[in-house]
Request: fold
Amino acid sequence: MKEYNQKSQSVDVFQAFTALEDATTLAGYAALIVAHDLSVPAPDYLCAIGIKHKKYVRGRWRIFTPRHKPDDSLDGHLTFALKYEGVDLAALKALFEVIEPEAIAEIVRAKPTGAYSRRIWYLYEWLCDKELDIKNATRGNFVPLIDDALQYSGPIRDSRRHRVRNNLPGTREFCPLIRRTEKLDRFIAMNLSQAAIDHIGKTHADLLSRAAAFLLLKDSKASYTIEGEAPAHNRIERWGKIIGEAGQRKMSVEELEYLQTIVIADHRFVMPGCRVEGGFVGEHDRTTGIPIPVHISARAEDLESLLSGLIETCQLLGESDYDAALTATLIAFGFVFIHPFEDGNGRIHRYLFHHVLAEKGFVSKGLVFPVSAVILDRIADYRETLEHYSKPRLDLIEWRPTDKGNVEILNETIDLYRYFDATRQAEFFFECIEETVNKILPEEVGYLSKYDLLDDFIKNYIDMPDKLVDLLIRFLNQNDGKLSKRARDKEFSQLTNAEVQVIERKYDDVFHGGG
Reply:
């Protein structure tokens, strides 16, 4: 019998387990990863059997009671994993590649009507794309693959062979998963889409149009700023126009390549379209020029499969009732992790947030959520969210530097980009949406309302051209409601001290309530 709690020095799961003083054995995916020395990213949460008769969480470990201890076998740990941890496609695929198919067949034959044995059977055939020598199931109720209490399920596609309901939120070529958490349930219950509609319903159409135009440009500029770029205003406007059209065209490889031509105006130094070589995000050693990656992109030869899977999953979830924000998380982060282009991936990744939210009807027509602007304000959290995916995978990718200062991947890595846990990314994205709906959008509408009040006051108080009034208000904004000495000596030298004081008092009254 395979020893499922043997030591494996090459897997950090066991090393983390040794730090636990009140747990006796690994269970579920942790046991499977260690026993089979699987080269997969360790799950965010791992399971072990403790000595106490109560369940509790310690760091990344979920400690179960002795009565939860599974049989120390392939069947025992697989059943425990599906029952208490959910579906981890990366770990399951790696496991199925190193065990004999007959081992799965024996589990199914021993329990032909078992709910978990049929799930295991289905997952093996689905992930490996081959049938076991087992006759179709004829008995047993249809069972869902994803347990809604553990993970967010997708649209149902029945498999009569296994009497299983495939409710995975994706396809074999691309299927990230999101764990059910209290935080995500709370965000979903907020119904932020309706909250945005409620805010909009209280806003005059003209005011909303102006707010939308400002937020569009703000988001476009922020997306470039995140990449460390400061392009000319016409490029910002051009990309803003594209963001405003998000959701109007179906996603395809051709559409993604078109978006890249808008983002990267000058293709003399960047090859348009999908990469034909490796790719990475990071720096180069100053002396040797050797790459120092913080993220390694998918292999060029895997891009066709990954992108077709991403697009098919986007269509599958877009036509279902799968939550819009969760869908946007899977598609947008999935794209940037694959990193299919030489350049422009980050901006297109953030565009995809807009695309999915618009296509799913989460945002009202003509309104753009300034997601990039919120991300820019939370750039450290954003980078940590990206690194949460990338860091654990760096050690699993074998590569060597090329003479062009690039990376050449030497091992199979496609499943690292197909199957991953996007829970951390989903929570971050929901935080950005919540800030947009409850803070950014009301603040911008509120600012424009106050701007109009001050604009009307100044025009009635002094005969001044519109452009100059706008400049005056901007100067006051920039200097906390006071007109600077430079502005008083130059652009507004003709204003008297008394007039300036009246305008400053009015500004304070309008923007600060006279405080």
